[in-house]
Amino acid sequence: xxxxxxxxxxxxxxxxxxxxxxxxxxxxxxxxxxxxxxxxxxxxxxxxxxxxxxxxxxxxxxxxxxxxxxxxxxxxxxxxxxxxxxxxxxxxxxxxxxxxxxxxxxxxxxxxxxxxxxxxxxxxxxxxxxxxxxxxxxxxxxxxxxxxxxxxxxxxxxxxxxxxxxxxxxxxxxxxxxxxxxxxxxxxxxxxxxxxxxxxxxxxxxxxxxxxxxxxxxxxxxxxxxxxxxxxxxxxxxxxxxxxxxxxxxxxxxxxxxxxxxxxxxxxxxxxxxxxxxxxxxxxxxxxxxxxxxxxxxxxxxxxxxxxxxxxxxxxxxxxxxxxxxxxxxxxxxxxxxxxxxxxxxxxxxxxxxxxxxxxxxxxxxxxxxxxxxxxxxxxxxxxxxxxxxxxxxxxxxxxxxxxxxxxxxxxxxxxxxxxxxxxxxxxxxxxxxxxxxxxxxxxxxxxxxxxxxxxxxxxxxxxxxxxxxxxxxxxxxxxxxxxxxxxxxxxxxxxxxxxxxxxxxxxxxxxxxxxxxxxxxxxxxxxxxxxxxxxxxxxxxxxxxxxxxxxxxxxxxxxxxxxxxxxxxxxxxxxxxxxxxxxxxxxxxxxxxxxxxxxxxxxxxxxxxxxxxxxxxxxxxxxxxxxxxxxxxxxxxxxxxxxxxxxxxxxxxxxxxxxxxxxxxxxxxxxxxxxxxxxxxxxxxxxxxxxxxxxxxxxxxxxxxxxxxxxxxxxxxxxxxxxxxxxxxxxxxx
Length: 735
What we know:
- There is one protein chain.
- By secondary structure, the protein is α/β, with parallel strands linked by helices.
- It is built from 25 helices and 27 strands.
- Strand 9 (231-240) and strand 10 form a beta hairpin.
- One of its GO terms (molecular function) is cyclic-guanylate-specific phosphodiesterase activity.
- Residues 155-208 form the PAS domain.
- One of its GO terms (biological process) is phosphorelay signal transduction system.
């Protein structure tokens, strides 16, 4: 492969093929040289003069030059001197060829000019080939070494650019803990110039803190190198003379290869920590008031208990429940309710001490954690201040709203040493304050706790009472005063607890209301009454016109399924609707809204009778009596008790009877226990009486016997001649 005096710019050299330049003024000499050396792996260039050779050398990468000494114009020595004076050609190896017998001076001149070998013509082809191949092999190694260095330089530049562009700080440490390398990100994060960090000990960026080791051998950086493992630390503190300590996350690893030391890669997590704290605060803060929420309160209470335990201090927990807030919320809407809660929170902030902890648990319940108390009187003083502060009117949307607060107080360690115990104690005390008249505070006592535990046990037992067949119905006769015959029955609920025995309705009926069980229990009562009435009808136990009265609770009254469920049982048991009477309370009918009207319309369509229970004890109003089609008014026992001694009670009962009769309603007097009460009621024209004077509430078998005896004799029902009648306990409240 040869090229004669070819322009070097046009020469395309195949990759990995070395080029040998043959310089001789005689072409036959060049051809002979090429024939000696050509093995198919060498590219040859031919130059007939020194000037042409120099031009080719400047434009072509040449591995070896065979240069003739004697040439017209520029001889070989001059060409060699020109090559060695030029940067791009000075390192190209040159073998000089001469036709003259060489003497020592000629040889020395050639070597001084830069030749690597000096051969005399005629050329020994074997010797020439050996020398050329040796020099080309050396050049090949040189070429490969150059490529390796170029690749290393490329990789170095690549990795340096990556390190310089990385957002993470990278620091290289020696085995003695001195900084040997720091990328721009590390310098920027530490706010240090490179000279202030390089060759400095690791303490220049790793400040000695209580939670961070002070000695190099105890640090993670040393352990990573000495134990040849990667160590990752989620949170630590870095800093410098130019920047205060800041949170970082770092990984330290031993350097690979022969280099000893540790590389530390770290990121600044200041923003992440701030975001985490913000999210944590949001999770623990009530968005409406800015106070702690339930989660924040629990955490604050745990910390307060830990401090008090450590320092043997006293603390108190105040549970605040707003009085009449629900009325504001229901009447004015949630927007006004929210503004009121915000105003309450603001007023509480200005009432308690700065060191006290305020929280809103939800709804209208707030708490205050009081620490550093000298005694329980400090908690009482704070509770009194809160009640007084919340008594004053609130201006909400151009309206003046007046509310109040009931406060329960639980103290540490007297009422408990954990959050659950303190909350339960404060809750019990708060409900006691509400039951005592509101706008009060109450300390928790053991007596309250006993009552609360009893209530809780009963509440839990109530869930099993219905499925466990512990509930039953008794029936109290209602007597027509004109005939003395049984004209009706009132179904009353009883609970036979398996261990506590017979539980008073005054105890468990309010619990049924609170837990919402009153609805399924009320449905069970209706179903049981209908089934019992069907059985009595089949056996002709009761007259057709004898009604059975069922008490309807407020929660059951507003249940949308009441009319449908009642219709279903009437139809299923083939009961005449007129033989069922539903007893409602005045409070149910006082809210003359669309819902109340719709419910009453549904009940009227069923053709059941409706009566008002405990008339006169609630919010009595002629408006609903006139508007709603009712069948009877029941005179409450509280008006009957003193009927024989109190002219006022006589006047009230007389007015109720006259009102009912004028509106074509009947009157039923409850709780009649003496003949004197019976005589007054008879004189006043009362229609029906119910009470212990004639009969206590009876179980089904007892009632059937009573009715059978009365019907067999064809006589009015005789008074109940039970021993010590005057000492009989009053009948239990009805469900």
